[in-house]
Write a structure and sequence with these properties.
The chain is built from 30 helices and 26 strands. It has about 775 residues and is α/β, with parallel strands linked by helices.
Length: about 775
């Protein structure tokens, strides 16, 4: 019987996780952050590597192993296994239980004395619950121990009664509550082997006679130099060619948004000689790629350069990646990085605003990133910039500074994340001063709300050019290098990521529950199957149609038509949904022969839809004296819908008709972005953020078009508190003209507008106006 079966990283069903987070509401910050990392394929949420497994196995190297973001030996298994073996305790392990179910069942059936569940990256209890159930089913006599960061963090922030409820809910036998925990686990395993009581072992919680008992807390100090990984305990096959290495503990800095240094304790690091021993062992076992996990690998500078010179001198040939602090590097370090095999760095940029960086207690400044990123790229080192949006003090202006930094420095990849209001971080101590309310991903403070911040994050995905968005959940920076080891070229990986991002954008702009667009899926599949070959030519049309250039062109047209500044030019935040009011609309209807509208179209020299909108503008001006009139105008057909803002100025009829025709052409060109831009504009009006209101709406509906698409136009007018007039045209052999009014003024003038509309159309045909519309209201307006 072995003393302990160690369990590595378990990932529950991603679809179940999406469903769980979605129960908080799809407008909640947690869901919106997650929503930027998956698309739906066959009605199932799929992240980038999941989708790649769906369409492109075997890989370019011939392996049919599914792609996975954690497809390497989990670092905690290396560390814990080595620690236990060094103290005479026996162990086995299961690295990724969700992908190794057969191995897990077999090893549990062998009856290990203890099963230890690690929680290194867990943020919810779900993985622990699933593992505990599996152990109870297949190894009912084994003791279950749970420890690691998730347990330690919960013990830190929960009251005793809440913690006991959580531990009971998780269902394990013993919990290790310690920041490190290796020594406590070893003492626990020794006691269980000897049948000794547990009360003398510190840092434990366990149930005893119906109540939870906690033993006294005692800090652990397990020095790195005394606890190096013994790679001889692990076969080359299980180790693989990609390994994660930690040469330091904790972090010497104190960023206001990060609680890691407080949890991890004093910053310590291994000497160069000890790191050399570890690298020698990895080289001897055929490892080719190393991810250095140190939060500040290039601190202190002298040690860092000595390590780089060591790797150059020993000619290991490793390709490696790490975190990198721009203010702690220099040109010499970057050249040494290039020579030693560095292929990528993760930069915690966080913000492009020096004011925000100071508030975050960051030591780096904007100038450091503007200098370092181009130097790193020139050395052939892939750069990833990680950003936080919404930290207390954030404003639209500081977000634009961040966008400007991306535009100037152009890191290869970037990811913007919604600020997470964590009670364990230094900034939390100032929550009253800063007006912080709420926690997690749902918060507000004096300068921004989580909803506004999430809107800016969405806009960055849609609008940033020169850098590629990294989906992150299920696809971290090291996934770029993982796919290269699986046979893809870096350029092929870039194209895959761009295509996946286009699918995310399509979801943001349309039906969030719809499957990935077939054209985008075909493009993704083609890029995946190209494998190691560098793709030639531009991205496919389906991807270019959703590019940042296409979005920015649409945004400029939208706000330019309104004569208002776009978000890039100083406008306010774009959030997730419009804020329409609940105004009462009444409608009067007239039916005319379609030939009359065709005659008006010939007179205006434009299409019937453009003629109808131009005639409506003339009718409103004649009835109300309003000029210029801003309207939200759209048309729906069996081929799709398009809408956008248009100015109906006091122009000669032919010139007005041509302007309207140009509007419809532009609206069709930017149709994919219409709903997004409409909702953002409504929010700015409702929030009094300088947006220009519209006084009317126009909807043209051809046979076969749906009728739900036009509702956002009405809601937009609700939000703008404009004149409150609308025209819906139902086209066909006979044409129905439905004029609507809302509010005291709209209801008062709508009949005059309807009469002027009929007169204008008739005048274009040298005909008498059709019968004046009935003055009875059809009822509350409904599309």
């Amino acid at each position: 019987m072995i003393d302990c079966l160690l369990i590595g990283f378990h990932e529950p069903s991603f679809a179940s996780y999406v469903e769980l987070v979605g129960k908080m509401g799809t407008s909640d910050g947690a869901y919106r952050d997650l929503d930027l990392a998956f698309v739906r394929h066959r009605k199932t949420p799929r992240r980038l590597l999941d989708l790649l497994s769906d369409v492109a196995l075997p890989d370019p190297c011939g392996s049919a192993r599914p792609y996975h973001n954690a497809d390497f030996l989990w670092p905690v298994l290396l560390a814990l296994g080595s620690y236990l073996a060094r103290r005479g305790l026996t162990f086995d392990y299961v690295n990724l239980p969700h992908l190794e179910e057969g191995s897990l069942r077999a090893k549990l059936a062998a009856g290990p004395r203890t099963v230890a569940i690690t929680t290194t990256v867990y943020v919810s209890p779900l993985p622990v619950l699933e593992l505990v159930r599996a152990v109870r089913e297949h190894a009912p006599h084994s003791r279950i121990v749970v420890g690691g960061p998730y347990i330690a963090n919960q013990a830190r922030v929960l009251e005793r009664e809440e913690l006991e409820r959580l531990l009971r809910y998780l269902g394990a036998d013993v919990y290790v509550i310690a920041q490190e925990g290796e020594r406590t686990l070893a003492e626990l395993l020794g006691a269980l082997r000897a049948g000794a009581p547990l009360d003398a072992i510190p840092n434990l919680a366990y149930e005893e006679r119906g109540a939870y008992r906690t033993t006294p807390a005692a800090p652990e100090n397990n020095p790195i130099e005394e606890n190096l990984v013994d790679y001889a305990l692990f076969s080359p096959e299980s180790l693989g060619e990609m390994v994660s290495v930690r040469t330091a503990r904790s972090c010497p800095f104190a960023c206001a948004f990060c609680g890691f240094p407080t949890r991890a304790g004093k910053y310590t690091y291994a000497g160069v000689d000890l790191v050399e021993r570890e690298l020698d062992a990895l080289h001897a076992r055929g490892v080719t790629t190393i991810s250095f996990l140190d939060d500040t690998f290039n601190v202190p500078k002298r040690r860092y350069k000595d390590l780089l010179r060591l790797m150059i001198r020993k000619r290991y040939g490793f390709r490696w990646n790490s975190f990198y602090r721009a203010d702690e590097g220099d040109e010499e370090a970057i050249e040494l990085m290039r020579e030693s095999g560095c292929e990528g760095v993760f930069l915690g940029v966080e913000s492009g605003s020096d004011r925000m960086l100071a508030l975050m207690n960051k030591t780096a400044r904007r100038a450091d990133y503007l200098a370092a990123i181009p130097q790193l790229k020139a050395a052939g080192i892939v750069t990833h910039a990680n950003l936080i949006v919404g930290f207390p003090g954030e404003t639209p202006g500081s977000v634009r500074e961040t966008e400007d930094l991306l535009a100037r420095a152009q890191p290869d990849f970037y990811r913007a994340q919604l600020w997470y209001a964590d009670p364990s971080t230094p900034i939390w101590k100032r929550r009253l001063e800063l007006g912080i309310r709420g926690s997690g991903f749902s918060w507000r403070h004096a300068t921004m709300t989580s909803d506004e911040a999430a809107g800016w994050v969405d806009r960055m995905l849609l609008s940033v050019s020169g850098s590629t968005w990294l989906p992150q959940s299920g696809f971290e920076m090291w996934s770029l290098f993982y796919l290269q080891r699986r046979g893809f070229s870096l350029e092929a990986v870039r194209r895959l990521v761009r295509c996946f991002n286009a699918a995310i954008a399509e979801k943001l702009l349309g039906d969030a529950d719809a499957d990935i667009d077939p054209a985008l899926l075909a493009t993704f599949t083609e890029a995946a199957r190209a494998g190691h070959a560098d793709p030639e030519g531009p991205d496919a049309d389906a991807v270019r149609a959703l590019s940042s250039a296409a979005y920015l062109e649409a945004e400029r047209w939208w706000y330019g038509s309104l004569g208002a500044p776009s978000p890039a030019e100083g406008g306010g935040a774009i959030t997730d949904a419009g804020r329409g009011g609940a105004r009462r609309w009444i409608t009067t209807s007239s039916v005319i022969d379609g030939a009359l509208l065709d005659g008006a179209a010939r007179a205006f020299g434009v299409s019937p839809s453009a003629a109808a909108l131009a005639a409506f503008g003339i009718a409103v001006r004649r009835a109300t004296g309003a000029a210029p009139l801003r309207a939200l105008a759209g048309q729906g057909s069996a081929d799709g819908d398009a809408w956008g803002p248009v100015r109906l100025d006091d122009l000669p009829p032919g010139e007005l008709g041509r302007r309207v025709e140009q509007h419809f052409a532009a609206a069709a060109r930017h149709a994919r972005f219409a709903r997004r831009l409409l909702c953002g504009w409504c929010d700015r009006v409702a929030g009094r953020q300088g947006a220009v209101g519209c006084g009317a709406w126009f909807a043209w509906r051809e046979p076969g078009a749906g009728d739900g698409w036009a509702a956002p136009l009405r809601d937009a007018i609700d939000a703008s508190e404009g004149v409150g007039l609308g025209l819906e045209v139902v086209a066909g052999p006979t044409v129905e003209l439905r004029v609507s009014g809302a509010g005291e003024r709209g209801e008062r003038v709508m009949y005059r507008v309807a009469a002027e509309l009929l007169a204008t159309i008739a005048g274009c045909n040298d005909a008498d106006p059709p019968r004046e519309p009935a003055r009875e209201a059809v009822g509350t307006f409904r599309f």
